[in-house]
Amino acid sequence: MVRSTLVTVTTVCLSILACYFSPAFGQSASSAITGTVRDTSGAVMPGVTIEASSPVLIEKVRSAVTDEQGQYKIIDLRPGMYTVTYTLTGFSTVKREGIELQPSFTATINVELRVGSLEETITVAGASPIVDIQNVQDRKVLPQDVLNALPTLRTPQSFVPYIPGVQGGLGEIGRDTANLSIHGSRAGEANVAVDGFEDHSLQGTGGAAFIYYINQGSVQEVAVEVGGQSAEQQSAGIRTNLIPKEGGNRFSGFFFAGFGNHSTQADNLTDDLRGRGLTAVNSLNKIWDLNPAWGGPIKKDKLWFYNAYRYWGSINYIAGLYYNATPTEWYYTPDTSRQATTKVTDGSSNLRLTWQVSPKQKFGIFYDYQPHCTCNRNFSSTVSPEATEWAPFVPNQFAQTSWKYTATNKMLIEAGVSSTFGNWQTRRQPGVADDAISVFEQDTGLVYRSDFTYGNHLNSPVLTRITTSYVTGAHAAKFGFNVNRGRRIDTMELGQQMRYRINTRGGQPNRIVQYASPWVVESWMNADLGLFAQDQWNFRRMTLNIGIRYDYFNGSVPAQDEAKLLDRFALPDPVFVPVRTFDPVNDVPNWHDLSPRLGVAYDLFGDGKTAVKASLSQYVAGQSVAIADANNPLNTSVNSVFRTWGDTDRDWVPDCDLKNTLQNGECGQVDNLAFGQPNAQASRYADDVLHGYSARPYSWEFSTGIQRELKPGFAVNGAYYRRWYGNFSVTDNVAQTASDFTTYCITAPVNPNLPGGGGYPVCGLYDTNKFGVISNVITQVKNYGSQQDVYDGVDLTTNIRLPGSVTLNGGLNIGRERANNCFLNDQPQLTVASTAPLIANSPRTDSYCDVRPPFQTQVKFFGVYPLPWWGLQTSATFQSLPGPQILASYTASSNDARPTLGRNLSSGTATVALIPPGTMYGERANELDLSVKKISRFGMYRVSATVEVFNLLNSSDVLGQNNTYGPDWLKPANILVGRWAKFGLQFDF
């Protein structure tokens, strides 16, 4: 503990010293203008003054002076239109106009000065650079005009799924979750930032942790990094940075209203879908969006404001699912006259103030209150509506302050603090009694009567950043740190603190799961600290990007008195276990990591139009409080057990003593005899996972490619990507060895949709001879063998932005992710967490543990094209994706296993995968969306009327199906929503 504290203090001190001695910071959202100035003989010209002016800058002008090599760089520029002026005594002034600077882009502008009088100004109008010949980051940018034109759902990140290589996001109606991945990254690594500050909570990492979604009315530009991230970023994957509006010297704003409902929708339920058991498709009930926003000066050139309000949401029908006609009974009875719906609503009220304290200092403050409701959380085709959760996010807010100091034209310092605070609540649906017991139907996967768990999830993270850099013409050295701290409190309870399982619809109960609930869990993230140094060095036509990042992560669990915590949240005492107390746990984990970031960009022909790039980067896995939670003494107690149940009198009441863990009455023995014992170590983490240098899970990413500007505003790009993972963990039940298991086989059911029609033996299955004896240790895979997870892929893309607001972006991705954990095959006491693609722990044979899917192709495009008549503007998006993976999760009984096992299964049943992962896929999914906008101008006012048509071709492609083998196996669970229209009206002033 002392050592970790010293490391933390030392790191903070070093970063503060870096801020003091090597000034100037360029936030990741900013852009830059750079280049070389020469005279007519080709000699470099030091001492030339360069001024970049733009109406998007509060201070109007930023300046720099060329160094000894004639090079200059002006950083921290907001996206927009710029004029750059070059002056030197004895030479004519050169003015370069109409430079459109995109987000997170370095525009290279080389000029030539000739001898002349100071009064002579040579104005040059040229196309804006479209190829970044210095940065190796793979960035995709979307200006506001394109963002507003595309047929999307008006979330700033809703265009991200149209980037080739991105997984997820097809067929969305409503608020986009941004839970996306690219080039083999993890969905939990998809981060969204507001002006450089990540906005996720401690509920998870990346897209899995969002409780705040920024109001699109507050966003000026969107910049997405999908590879080659600098040392400023901790994790790999997708990083969407939302660049906010700040207001201006003229009062301006807009009002938007949008609406669509079921009457605007076509039916795409086909005979093929009916033949697969689908009786109703997922479709739109209604969608709405009200979004006024405005801003302007409080004091001209000094203090600006921008304010936006938004209320939006959607109600949608769920494919193949109906309301339960008997929600309080023990059997699910579909009411086929009432298709199930899910509802999501969001609100946003925010204010941003920007104060230019002096020409060198700027201060900003932003606050957004965003109540939200996922009013049917956990909805799917296998969850009955009464068993979903009413999940309001109240309170839910994002706050941010920032300060920027430009000491000289080479010196810029920025500091800031942000926080996403909220309580994600999961409550019962109206009409569900507190004592209603949840039921799980194993043959169909259906959950009904009530949900498994309910509770509160409070998050209070605070992120602090101080970042600086020293900028000359040839160098841009950045230094800085960020630290995130906070705590998470989770509560959990459910009806009678247990749930039932039945074997089939209308069948017999066969299992009870008992919980040691209610409970309250508190965990802390003491420090998620990153200290980085990044240097960009220009050497003639080559630019080196060299960085190093140090990450320190420390989590802990405070002392917990369960009686006090339960009282705090007005929860009753546990039913099956006594009230407990727990001692604190420190350094869970305590990690230190160094991650290099290396890249090179080369201006192939020296004309700024062709760049060859390569990068090699290591990233640590994102983390919140998951490890602390897993080591919380309450969680490491045995808090749930299952036992067989034969309800012989069919009264749905267990005729046994449920507090007796041994077999009695109608109930079998629980699967873990430690249930109810305080501090029983059901699972514990080994030191090699929790502590040390380079113990944290990580990934490496390599990319190389070429980008070429074919003509002004038209560029193409080809790139290869490879990603591989390390520091996998494995769970070892040290209370058992391989000799404590008996191997057996089952025979797959006969079914024409199974490989070869089914009927084949499935071997590599193991059943324990020491049922209920568990002592799990989570440790490094390398102690037992080797595990692999590798992605390889190629992107071929285009970027076209022509005069007249013509835009076309997109291309194709060809890739696959392969994985191998065959070291498990003869060690049944070991299990590993599933990787992507899914690897089964059972069966343990090569076809299941060595997963090599075929290379698959994505095709994605989006574009905007203004028509030459009547102020009409069209835009479209298109996606063509591989079909969903087909699996078959089969519940094997003792009858299936007895012929080769020679006895009953120890737990009565076993879950067996019948289809090797990565071998079977559904048909491709294709979606085309179209928008037509009529723009009318009345002086300084503009009115836009929009019709957006989604799934224009009315495709009914399947996006996911039920993979539980049984009567609903392969029944479509999610298809493309049938063609539907949304209408919008916007007034700009």
Determine the fraction of residues in helical runs and give it as a percent range.
under 10%
* CATH homologous superfamily caption of the domain at 14-130: Immunoglobulins
| CATH domain topology of the domain at 14-130 | Immunoglobulin-like
Largest sheet: 26 strands, mixed
Please tally the helical runs, counting DSSP H or I stretches of 4 or more residues.
9
Q: How large is the share of residues in beta strands?
A: over 45%
Structural class computed from helices and strand pairing: mainly beta
Low-confidence stretches are 1-29
Radius of gyration: 30 Å
Rounded mean pLDDT is 89
Q: Globular, elongated, flat, extended or rod-shaped: what is the shape?
A: globular
Quick one: CATH class of the domain at 14-130? Mainly Beta
Roughly how many Å apart are the termini? Answer: 58 Å
Number of strands: 59
CATH architecture of the domain at 14-130: Sandwich
Ordered list of secondary-structure elements with their pairings:
Layout: H1 2-21, E1 31-39, E2 49-53, E3 61-65, E4 71-77, E5 80-87, E6 93-101, E7 106-108, E8 111-113, E9 121-125, E10 138-143, H2 144-149, E11 166-167, E12 181-182, E13 191-194, E14 197-198, E15 219-227, E16 239-244, E17 252-261, H3 271-275, E18 283-299, E19 303-324, E20 334-358, E21 361-369, E22 372-377, E23 389-408, E24 411-426, E25 438-441, E26 446-448, E27 455-459, E28 462-471, E29 475-492, E30 498-502, E31 509-515, E32 519-539, E33 542-556, E34 560-561, H4 562-568, E35 581-582, E36 590-603, E37 610-620, H5 626-630, H6 633-636, E38 640-644, E39 683-685, H7 687-690, E40 691-693, E41 698-711, E42 714-726, E43 729-733, E44 741-747, E45 761-768, E46 776-780, E47 788-802, E48 806-820, E49 830-832, H8 846-849, E50 850-851, E51 856-866, E52 872-881, E53 889-893, H9 894-901, E54 909-913, E55 925-938, E56 941-950, E57 958-961, E58 972-975, E59 980-988
Parallel strand pairs: 1-7, 1-8, 6-9, 13-16, 25-30, 36-40, 39-46
Antiparallel strand pairs: 1-4, 2-3, 2-5, 5-6, 10-15, 11-12, 13-14, 15-16, 17-18, 17-59, 18-19, 19-20, 20-21, 20-22, 21-23, 22-23, 23-24, 24-27, 24-28, 25-26, 27-29, 28-29, 29-32, 30-31, 31-38, 32-33, 33-36, 34-35, 36-37, 37-41, 41-42, 42-47, 43-46, 43-49, 44-45, 47-48, 48-50, 48-51, 51-52, 52-55, ...
